[in-house]
């Protein structure tokens, strides 16, 4: 009886902290994003050549990227035993992460999302492992996709096929190394994983990897459509833009203390695109690309803010 009361007390304390923290995340994120935007030196004359039809197509493509990312998180959780998790609940968790990553030390977004998931799942080990699968698959698939399409762009088709074969093997090996990855992770956290942790990792990693790889390709298509919108796509292949996009995103991802990689991702895009186009156009494309991602992050964050209290409260039934 006392144990139940202590658990309820901890939950009430958690609920009193998480939502004010989320409000603070959103406010700080908006301030940082606006500060970044107004610090830019933009040549607005370049936007006169912009095709708004292609811009709309780029926005829709980025929306598809977000949908794939949400699906990856949803099926990641389902394969870890949360069979009742809905697409809306997954969207709200991604919304918490999307807005939290704009705070200094963007790990706060992952922590806030993990806190919401812990409240629903009641198992910290599941939270850690699902996040681990997502982050490993994100970086792993990014490296594979970048290497593969870089070789395709250089015309090394046979070597690209070899890399593809090795990539497929690496995915299955990573899934089979579940005991090593899981045991090492939980040993560092001084926790003991249960048998279901190994099974969940093995089941989820391959599917999440595939969805993340698809997300990288679709993200490159967003950049490609923006280039078409500015009329400067000539001379660029899809394969080149894919590895450029992956390099830009991974650079921003690895810049841990830069909120959402602001400036880092754009710098990589400008440096690589300006080789065959004017710097001004490359800057405009990179800024517009960031503004589109900001739009979806803001929308998902608002969705989490207004619906999170209703849909991220009740515990989720876990299947065996």
TrEMBL record:
<feature type="transmembrane region" description="Helical">
    <location>
        <begin position="126"/>
        <end position="151"/>
    </location>
</feature>
<dbReference type="GO" id="GO:0005886">
    <property type="term" value="C:plasma membrane"/>
</dbReference>
<feature type="transmembrane region" description="Helical">
    <location>
        <begin position="16"/>
        <end position="38"/>
    </location>
</feature>
<feature type="transmembrane region" description="Helical">
    <location>
        <begin position="236"/>
        <end position="257"/>
    </location>
</feature>
<dbReference type="InterPro" id="IPR022791">
    <property type="entry name" value="L-PG_synthase/AglD"/>
</dbReference>
<protein>
    <recommendedName>
        <fullName>Flippase-like domain-containing protein</fullName>
    </recommendedName>
</protein>
<feature type="transmembrane region" description="Helical">
    <location>
        <begin position="157"/>
        <end position="177"/>
    </location>
</feature>
<keyword id="KW-1133">Transmembrane helix</keyword>
<feature type="transmembrane region" description="Helical">
    <location>
        <begin position="269"/>
        <end position="288"/>
    </location>
</feature>
<feature type="transmembrane region" description="Helical">
    <location>
        <begin position="294"/>
        <end position="314"/>
    </location>
</feature>
<keyword id="KW-1003">Cell membrane</keyword>
<feature type="transmembrane region" description="Helical">
    <location>
        <begin position="207"/>
        <end position="230"/>
    </location>
</feature>
<feature type="transmembrane region" description="Helical">
    <location>
        <begin position="50"/>
        <end position="73"/>
    </location>
</feature>
<dbReference type="Pfam" id="PF03706">
    <property type="entry name" value="LPG_synthase_TM"/>
</dbReference>
<keyword id="KW-0472">Membrane</keyword>
<keyword id="KW-0812">Transmembrane</keyword>
């Amino acid at each position: 009886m006392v144990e139940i009361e202590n658990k309820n007390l901890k939950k009430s304390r958690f609920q009193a902290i998480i939502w004010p923290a989320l409000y603070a995340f959103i406010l700080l994120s908006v301030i940082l994003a606006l500060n970044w935007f107004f610090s830019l030196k933009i040549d607005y004359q370049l936007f006169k050549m912009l095709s708004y039809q292609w811009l709309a197509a780029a926005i829709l493509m980025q929306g598809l990227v977000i949908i794939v990312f949400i699906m990856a998180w949803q099926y990641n959780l389902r394969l870890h035993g949360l069979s009742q998790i809905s697409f809306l609940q997954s969207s709200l968790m991604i919304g918490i992460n999307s807005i939290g990553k704009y705070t200094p030390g963007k790990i706060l977004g992952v922590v806030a999302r993990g806190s919401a998931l812990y409240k629903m799942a009641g198992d910290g080990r599941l939270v850690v492992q699902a996040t681990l699968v997502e982050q490993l698959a994100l970086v792993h698939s990014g490296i594979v996709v970048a290497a593969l399409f870089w070789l395709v762009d250089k015309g090394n088709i046979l070597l690209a096929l070899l890399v593809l074969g090795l990539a497929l093997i690496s995915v299955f090996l990573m899934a089979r190394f579940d005991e090593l990855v899981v045991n090492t992770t939980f040993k560092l956290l001084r926790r003991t994983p249960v048998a279901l942790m190994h099974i969940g990792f093995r089941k989820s990693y391959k599917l999440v990897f595939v969805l993340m790889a698809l997300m990288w390709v679709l993200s490159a298509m967003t950049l490609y459509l923006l280039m078409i919108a500015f009329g400067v796509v000539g001379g660029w292949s899809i394969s080149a833009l894919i590895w450029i996009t992956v390099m830009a995103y991974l650079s921003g991802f690895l810049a841990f203390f830069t909120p959402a990689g602001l400036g880092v991702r754009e710098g990589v895009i400008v440096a690589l695109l300006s080789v065959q186009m004017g710097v001004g156009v490359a800057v405009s494309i990179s800024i517009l690309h960031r503004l589109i991602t900001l739009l979806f992050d803001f929308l998902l964050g608002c969705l989490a803010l207004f619906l999170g209290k209703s849909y991220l409260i009740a515990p989720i039934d876990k299947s065996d």
